Amino acid sequence: MKRILLAATLTLSAIAAQAQLANTPFFTQMGDLCNSGCNANPQNITNCNGTLYFAANIDTLGTELCVSNGTDAGTRFVLNIAPGALGSGPKNFTVLNSKVIFMANDGVHGYEPWISDGTTTGTKMLKDIYPGTTGQVTDGFTVMNGKAYFSAGDNVNGTELWVSDGTTAGTKMLLDIDPTASSYPSNKMAVYSGKLYFSATTNSDRELWVSDGTVAGTQLLANVNPNAASGPDNFVQYNGKLYFSAFADTSGGEICVTDGTPAGTTVVTNIASAGDSLPRALTVSNNLLFFAAGTQLDSQTVWVTNGTKAGTTKLATLSTPYASRKEMMLDNDGLLYFTGAKPGLSTRDVLWQTDGTVANTKVVDNTLLSVGNMTSLKNEVYFICNNVLYHTPNTINAQAVILPANFAGIIEDKPMATMGDALYFAANYQLFYGVELWKMELIPTSVHNVGSLTNTIIYPNPASNTFSIKNNNSNNTTVRLFSLTGQLLLQTQQTENINIASLPAGNYMVQVIADGQATMQKLVKQ
Question: Which one is predicted more confidently, 136 or 260?
Fold first, then answer.
């Protein structure tokens, strides 16, 4: 199995002399899931309680379930759910108690709910809800009080609200909301004040429903639009209430709010006095609620609200027409980042940031067009643009920086995931190894009190194939091996028999870190 390690280059004087923490990106390929240079194409990467669940193309088996604990050796294929080469296409990974519930198609039953503990024997279909190869489980699970709620259809009741506790016996329809037809509960539900909120259809009227997880406690909350379907969607909690978009009676598609009571379910404000503003991408940041909307005057705008009509303000006009745009918003430690058209150029997305004020709503970097997926790690924003990974510090007027320049990889524009201090993404290194799962780990290159870690011995020194570390913190130690030019060659928590057999003879520097202190010593490789 090939394993590729890359790190940015530093000078040893910088490593030894800096007094504040600084981070070096360290890239590692996670396994080789599709051999011989074919594309594993990892997708749907999801951090589930410290284990990554994702789908990947496994040689001749198609796209199947894989997991990773963040190490090369711990990245593996779990189960060939759909025998043959078609693949089961697992997706919608969601933590349910100590396991993960997801959707998969085994080629016999269609898309149905599955459960996994990350092992082959612990991965199984929960229930064949719709007999036959069709499958009627729609996208998305929402967990409340140890149970997963979702929309699914059988061959008797149509598509209704289902629930699962992770067992076959406990996977069942909760309520036939519309006995005469399918109620089609929304894929994206919300948990608010211990109850489940979603939209559902009865008698062709799609309105706001609520459930406490019981049959008796599942009921219509409010008829937001008495004259037509309101279609509640885009739920998000903010300031002790639940906000959402809906087509209200006289206001059209606007931003609405509920406190969990019929009387407390209202329109916040009518942004588009004529027509619909169609709020979407509702995101909380800096104790404010942001959303994208459109009006008859501004085809796409970004708005902010404190939950009141008077406190709802337009921040920026982005592009036209809004129907062709994709909204992407991310809160990062009190600043909101979003994509929108470059001023004067309506067809290409650039990265914006705002603190909720008009004055500080601005483009981060107007040279980077077609900005794609983004996420946050250690208070910085990482995003993909033209298949290159960038980051930006979390400050107003920060510029985007490529990270790092020496990673000759093509980053796939797919959602990334974080786990611990690492970023995981799909990439094809040097267009030779195929698209595989990669990890970018931020490694401190300096530590407070450098040189104050005493009683540390490297032995044997000189060393041939292995060396060991002896100190008083052997259970909480990180060891890094650098070349004399500052390239990070090895990092491990192992302190005994550290393997350097593959390295050429010469001089190296070993950094030992324990409990916020460090020392740097020379190692001679014979």
Answer: 260
